[in-house]
């Protein structure tokens, strides 16, 4: 593995290895909660909290954990942070916790988090893992916000609950339903690949 | 340490630490979460029985609770029934308010639902659905109007159907009908506990 600078370690999560558009990880939550910007944002932040804390902890104790029980240990660690996030949301942001429903507990099985723990945090120093987790979280949150902005705008004519399109606009209800999520995600991934190809053609390797 | 022993020790300590940590978090947030739930119910009760200052539980069984809403003088304003109906996707938990004499519906409020966003989820919408329930006659069989009509054209026990979400509308209607029926029965049997509040 070629070594990256800390800056590159952070930036890769935003574009080149974006968890949603390039790694296609965590699709369940990505598709399910992005029907309103506030839900996408809250999900992104909850995942960020869990990803950053568990990556840091996994990296710190990576040398103590025997290889054979590593996945089990990671899952216990991740589940603990998820439960903390879930309880704090229910205590301090009840409307958000209601809107996200079962998807917060399901962060436990969000592949981004276990994926980063296994592929990165278990092999790198704590500092590097922290930077990696921050970049991945930001990349995930940005992707969720873009998806949910498109879906909320077309599906309800609002952004963050505020009416932005006039009353003449008949909302495309399908954008709020599962098919709308797949359509938007497909277009988002295609756009990301298209831009990637274009820029690669411009500066041949 | 030999490998099997180390595996057991590590996994056990990770789990024990996690459990201890979560116990602490639960201790910190438990009260606040219960308080939020309580507050949500109270807010909903004063919504479905306008003018309510305080409320108390008058009857409870699995999946069905009755609250008595009283004003600042302690006189009974009405009853609020919390119950659930099977919707299109999952249970629709609602709260329906009735006046003290069980003559008319005061208001309807949806506490929890997972209906289709943009269609069935309109059961939470004041303009397209909830407003039509206010003041309906409880002693006539409730009915749905399809297609929806103007508020003045609706009969004394008629409410509008949500276009494209007949199943959700019907679910709420049947849930409310059953709940009000049960409320009436409980009251005639004298099973509603109104201690503190006196009927006018």
Pick out its properties.
heterodimer; A: 205 residues; mainly alpha; two-stranded antiparallel ribbon; B: 200 residues; alpha+beta; five-stranded antiparallel beta sheet; two-stranded parallel ribbon; 2 helices; 7 strands
Brief summary of the model shown:
The complex is a heterodimer of chains A (205) and B (200). Chain A is mostly helical and 205 residues long.
Tell me what the structure shows.
The complex is a heterodimer of chains A (205) and B (200). Chain A is mostly helical and 205 residues long. Chain A has a domain at 12-148. Chain A contains eight helices and two strands; from the N terminus they run αααααααββα. A two-stranded antiparallel ribbon of chain A has the order 1-2. In chain A, a hairpin with a 2-residue loop joins strand 1 (158-159) and strand 2 (162-163). In chain A, helix 3 (37-60) runs parallel beside helix 6 and helix 3 packs antiparallel against helix 7. The mean pLDDT of chain A is 89. The radius of gyration of chain B is 22 Å and the shape is extended. Chain B has 200 residues and is an alpha+beta fold. Chain B has two helices and seven strands. In chain B, a hairpin with a 2-residue loop joins strand 1 and strand 2 (64-70). The model of chain B is unreliable at 196-200 (pLDDT under 50). Chain B has one domain (45-199). In chain B, the strands form two sheets. In chain B, strands 1-2-3-4-5 form a five-stranded antiparallel beta sheet. In chain B, strands 6-7 form a two-stranded parallel sheet. The interface between A and B is medium-sized, with 28 and 24 residues.
